[in-house]
Amino acid sequence: MKTQRVFVLGGTGFVGRHFLNHLARLGVPSRVPARHPHRCRDLGLIQGCESYPIAGWSEEDLVEAMAGCTVVVNLVGVLDEGAGRTFEQSHVTLPERATRAALRAGVPRFLHLSALGADAESGPSEYLRSKGRGERVVHAASVQGLAVTSFRPSVIFGPGDRFFNRFAGLIRRMPGFLPLACPEARFAPVHVGDVVKALVRAMDAPETQGQVHDLCGPRIFSLRDLVMYTSQTIGRPIRVIGLTDRLSRLQARVFEKLPGKLFTMDNYQSLQVDSLCRTSGLAELGIEATDIEVVVPGYLT
Ligand SMILES: NC(=O)c1ccc[n+]([C@@H]2O[C@H](COP(=O)([O-])OP(=O)(O)OC[C@H]3O[C@@H](n4cnc5c(N)ncnc54)[C@H](OP(=O)(O)O)[C@@H]3O)[C@@H](O)[C@H]2O)c1
């Protein structure tokens, strides 16, 4: 690979850890700015991965931290707001600041993980609208010479995911039934290994510059199908009670007040559009999509 050192914003998260391990297997060094270095000491166990404590996250801090890197990969994201975190800050302000810092630090390449349905104007939720604004600000930096490619995954699965693991945990705690909001919302779950491969393929492929790739798995499921699949996989039969739209909203209003914010009104609004691809970004990058059956039983059971 031509890439010399990759600067991974959001490297401490679920996708980030898979990405860093993949880079290590390829022998590509990485650097991860860490907000809470004490919470991610294990990153030091990944070959070639350098955790970089960064206090202020100002543009100056980022320019300094990016020195010597040849690619910036932005994996920063939040699913809800609160305790000082906002969608605007994580999905728009920080990526924009990171593009400016990359230009100043002389980093030529920028990869950005967005989300399917991202749309600055007509996204149904603030999550999706802020993701749309984020794509806009990072691609705007191409005018100044930064080579930007972005990716829009459907829900991502793999060891450590928040989707199947969370439903498996819920099913294990429920007494044989599960009230499910938005049961007919549709997804095409994409394997984290395929998302990581897409990032790596694009890294050294200048022809992907300026492109936005939708990333989906090979099959489409409703949320109800995925919960049923989870219950079968962990061997805990459960009756899924699909909630009506009115009850789904009510559940969101109640759950967003509870610790852990299992489900919020903004999450409910995101589920009003299907998370499906218009074109297959994985196929465009020469990657064969992995089915849930191949991977999920391996980490849920
Ligand atoms: N997982 C999915 O199913 C899915 C689906 C579609 C799109 N995506 C997108 O894919 C990306 C990676 O997702 P993920 O599942 O890996 O998320 P994750 O596990 O929640 O990790 C999020 C990362 O973002 C960092 N972060 C959040 N807000 C930040 C801020 N204001 N400043 C600095 N760092 C911040 C976190 O750092 P700390 O460790 O310090 O908190 C963490 O490293 C995100 O952009 C997400 O929106 C994910």
Question: In words, what does this structure look like?
Answer:
The protein is an alpha/beta fold and 301 residues long. It folds into two domains: 6-160 and 189-216 and 277-284, 3-Layer(aba) Sandwich (Rossmann fold); 164-184 and 220-275 and 290-300. It has eleven helices and 13 strands. The chain has helices at residues 14-26, 59-65, 87-105, 126-140, 164-173, 192-203, 223-233, 245-255, 265-270, 281-284, 292-300, and strands spanning 6-9, 30-34, 49-53, 71-74, 109-113, 147-153, 156-157, 177-180, 186-187, 190-191, 212-215, 221-222, 239-242. The strands form four sheets. It has a seven-stranded parallel beta sheet with strand order 3-2-1-4-5-6-11, sandwiched between helices. Helix 1 (14-26) links the parallel strand 1 and strand 2. Helix 1 (14-26) crosses helix 6 (192-203), helix 2 packs across helix 3 and helix 3 packs parallel to helix 4 (126-140). The longest helix is centred in the N-terminal third of the chain and has 19 residues, at 87-105. The chain is globular, with a radius of gyration of 19 Å. The mean pLDDT is 96. NADP nicotinamide-adenine-dinucleotide phosphate (NAP) binds at residues 10, 12-16, 35-36, 75-78, 85, 89-90, 94, 113, 115, 153, 155-156, 162-163.
